[in-house]
Design brief:
Helices cover 18% and strands 30% of the residues. It is of the alpha+beta class. Strands 5-6-7-8-9-10-16-15-12 form a nine-stranded antiparallel beta sheet, with no helix packed on it. Strand 8 and strand 9 form a beta hairpin. Helix 6 packs across helix 8 and helix 11 runs parallel beside helix 12. It is globular.
Length: 825
């Protein structure tokens, strides 16, 4: 009985992070002195499906969370037995329905995975669909005061993830630090950036989370070919394996394990204008007004550190309006809000020792300490002599929250948390739960947690927008919107963004995005800005931001303004589609920017393509990231035909096509069979009306059934999912016979308060020639063919010039069946 209680304690304990191994690790690539402690199986025990394996060098726990999710913990003899996870929130409720004990191995079976424990030598492998997807090499090791785990990887395997890595799509052949650290002015090739996640995703359809936040590294065949090695300075050596039939299943199970991203406020999907930084109330109002006057949509003004001071230096941690420059912030916020523009404010966790807030937090014991127990004042901090809030203390989080709350009460709509790696975090700094190196990678995670939980307590109906640049595995559950840091304003900086978005998205962080236009250094470059904004309009968040040079499109030349305006307008017209991607992130755990293989896992060509991506399931984007680029070679995946967004020309999948490129557009393609919902263009999401819905259907000439579900709620209230205050609008195209197709439109769900009773529906069928419709019936009633297409007038027409069929009708939410009968030639 004692043993069972001990095991349950190790599973459910919420004790603080184990800090028993407070060691320095140099992580030198050339040092190969390993103490493998090659182990041999002695016996095993099964306690409520938690299998404990005793070896001659310690204990291993094998824990099924679900049939596809298995955790393994290695506890060396006389080593620490901490088990707290900052990433995992799922409770283990899986079971091994069969345990086979043979002379040389132990096999543990779930409904999906087989876990094979080799007895002599001891190592573990995982089998899915009769394929060994990964196996430990010699498992747990210790080297030069570094603990770690080693795995074997296949020669043809491709590895992705690990957080922010501005490198090629496939990470094999590299060694990467697991330590959040900014790199000012980075470009393509930067291996280590602000947000590391100890997680890899494999082309063999598994995910591996090395659940240890301490300072460490991941060596993906960089030092030894065929070896994946995770190491850290201490903590529990544990990992979680998720297997699946496809990458969507894996993504969903990872979010089950670590938490789903909450729904965003819909305004967060609009144009969020920022710079370093707006210095006065007058300047902020003036630039917002100019942006609106010049026809650019606008949903937020993001205010940098000048809101609490008039200088970069000497003011950080003041956390209140600097009234000489911001005489009436409440009036400004209210005035902007009437125009549909929200205000977002920056905060940082540092407090300079010259400020009143330092005196307060020092006296309350809320700051990180030095070895003598005094508040640690870092004299090498760029912004001044700075102390760091010990965010791991609940009372520090409450103190910080009480600086946010008055600003929310006057109308601030969202937050920007900067320097949260933390940017400057000396190794000898001490927190309540460990040294700086032990807790560094979870500092931002706890900051997000404090902000999110206090928001839920004090503003239970308000959705949180928290822009930040660092965190840990699972931080998505705290409603974070990470960006890729202080990127160079250069073509190299732009080239880094597609792999960064893909790697982070696969790590469960769907809103990763960049400072659109570039942040650091460089010059005003109209072509570069145009290309960056074109891509950013098809990224999770659109946020122009930079330093020294204006980031707002109104300050660029007329050609640039025209093109950027067009792309921003298109993004706003696609709000129904983009908001549905947000819902997929929340409900299914899917990234918004997806590698091609996420949607086309059977097409082996897609696993090596990292210069294009899927924006959701149906839109393929090929950003132009080279100066003066004239042609683009674009791979279109198999299993589908593809339509060009710009001219509706159709192409066969499974081919590389070469397209001529102009400055006006970037190559964008729509998958055949896709339903893409549009709305009327609006200047702000406040004006987004769901009464008018345009559905573009890209005709699939195969006999497949095509379907699409569009999520809809009020776009602002927290808890709509939990309270079922939403609907799905379901669209389907079904093949009946040659020249005869049925289209179905219906809604499903409880509904929400602002849901329109009547909608004007316009359906465009693209890719169907003039013989495609001879007769059209709406719920059995024949529709009339009209000469001119006018939204809202019942009937249908054919646009000869564009080659598009238009169908219009009023919809009150009832099930609609459209029967299309084509002409027989």
């Amino acid at each position: 009985m004692t043993k069972i209680i001990f095991l349950l304690f190790m599973i459910t304990s919420i004790a603080s992070i184990n800090i028993g191994c407070n060691r320095e690790a140099k992580f030198t690539e050339t040092d190969k002195i390993y103490d493998y402690n090659e182990r041999r199986y002695i016996t095993h025990n099964n306690y409520d499906s938690i299998v404990e394996v005793i070896t001659d060098h310690g204990t291993t726990l094998i824990i099924p969370y679900e049939s596809n999710i298995i955790e393994v913990r290695h506890y060396p003899q006389n080593g620490p037995k901490g088990n707290k996870s900052d990433a995992v929130i799922l409770k283990p409720e899986g079971t091994f329905h069969s345990i086979i004990d043979e002379s040389n191995y132990l096999k543990l079976l779930t409904d999906s995975l087989s876990v094979v424990v080799n007895k002599d030598p001891f190592f573990i492998s995982f089998i899915y669909n009769n394929d060994t997807i990964i196996k430990e090499e010699k498992g747990y090791f210790r080297r030069n005061d570094t603990d770690g785990i080693r795995f074997e990887i296949d020669a043809n395997e491709k590895i992705y993830g690990l957080g922010e890595r501005a490198v090629s799509l496939d990470l094999i052949g590299g060694r990467y630090n697991l330590y959040n650290r900014p790199k000012y002015g980075y470009e393509i090739g930067a291996k280590n950036l602000n947000y590391s996640v100890p997680l890899i995703v494999s082309s063999k359809k598994y995910l591996l989370l090395f659940d240890n936040p301490q300072k460490g590294y991941a060596d993906v065949g960089g030092t030894e070919s065929g070896i994946l090695e995770f190491g850290a300075i201490g903590g529990t050596m544990k990992y979680v394996l998720i297997g699946g039939s496809d990458h969507k299943m894996i993504a969903t199970n990872y979010s089950k394990l670590t938490g789903f991203q909450p729904l965003p406020p819909i305004w967060a999907l609009g144009n969020l204008q920022s710079r370093m930084g707006y210095r006065t109330q007058e300047e902020t109002d003036s630039i917002a007004n100019l942006t609106i006057e010049e026809g650019f949509p606008l949903d937020a003004m993001i205010i940098d550190l000048y809101w609490f001071g008039d200088s970069l230096l000497g003011t950080m941690g003041r956390l209140d309006w600097y009234k000489p420059n911001w005489p009436d912030p409440e009036k400004m916020i209210s005035g902007l809000r009437k125009k549909g523009v929200k205000v977002v404010l920056i905060t940082e966790p540092y407090i300079l020792d010259s400020l009143k807030n330092f005196t307060i937090t020092d006296s309350l014991g809320l700051l990180a300490l030095d070895s003598l127990g005094n508040s640690y004042v870092n004299t090498e901090f760029y912004f001044g002599n700075g102390a760091l809030l010990d965010i791991f203390k609940p009372e520090a989080g409450i103190w910080f929250w009480n600086k946010y709350k008055p600003q929310i009460d006057i109308g601030v709509a969202g937050w920007w948390g900067d320097l949260g790696e933390p940017e400057n975090h000396p190794s000898d700094q001490i927190h309540i739960n460990g040294s700086a190196d032990e807790v560094h990678n979870i500092y931002g995670h706890y900051w997000h947690k404090a902000l999110y939980e206090n928001m839920r307590e004090d503003y239970p109906k308000m959705r949180l927008f928290n822009l930040n640049r660092s965190g840990y595995a699972g931080s998505q559950r705290y409603s974070i919107y990470p960006w890729t840091g202080d990127v160079s304003r250069s073509w190299g900086g732009l080239q880094a963004q597609v792999p960064l978005m893909i790697h982070m998205g696969l790590c469960g962080l769907p809103y990763i995005h960049s400072d659109a236009g570039g942040f650091a250094q460089g010059v005003m470059d109209n072509e570069l800005y145009t290309r960056w904004l074109q891509m950013s309009c098809f990224s999770p968040i659109l946020r122009p931001h930079g330093s020294d040079i204006p980031s707002e499109p109104v300050y660029f030349n007329d050609t640039t303004k025209k093109i950027v305006r067009k792309f921003m307008h298109l993004r706003y017209q696609l709000l129904p589609y983009i908001y549905n991607l947000a819902a997929e992130a929340t409900i299914n755990g899917y990234p918004i920017v997806r590698p091609l293989f996420f949607e086309f896992s059977k097409d082996t060509n897609t696993y090596k393509i990292g210069n294009e991506y899927m924006f959701g399931e149906d839109i393929l984007v090929f950003p132009i990231v080279e100066k003066n680029q004239k042609y683009a070679d674009i791979y279109l995946p198999k299993e589908s035909d593809w339509y060009s967004l710009w001219d509706n020309q159709i192409y066969s999948g499974g081919n590389i096509i070469t397209q001529k490129v102009d400055l006006e557009t970037i190559p964008i393609f729509i998958k055949a069979g896709a339903f893409i919902p549009y709305t009327n263009y609006v200047n702000t999401t406040d004006d987004y009306s769901k009464r008018n819905l345009l559905i573009k259907y890209y005709f699939d000439h195969s006999y497949k059934t095509n379907s699409y579900s569009m999520f809809e709620d009020d776009g602002k209230t927290y808890g709509t999912l939990e309270n079922n205050n939403f609907i799905y609008i379901l669209m389907e195209r079904e093949f009946i016979s040659e020249k005869k197709y049925k289209y179905i439109l219906k809604s499903k769900g409880k509904g929400y308060e602002e849901e329109p009773e009547t909608r004007n529906i316009s359906i465009e069928i693209i890719g169907l020639d003039d013989s495609g419709i001879d007769k059209l019936y709406l719920n059995g009633e024949k529709l009339i063919q009209i000469k001119n297409h006018t939204t809202g007038n019942p009937g249908y027409s054919y646009d000869v010039e564009k080659g598009i069929w238009n169908i219009n009708f009023k919809w009150v939410g009832q099930d609609v069946e459209l029967l299309q009968i084509g002409k027989i030639k």
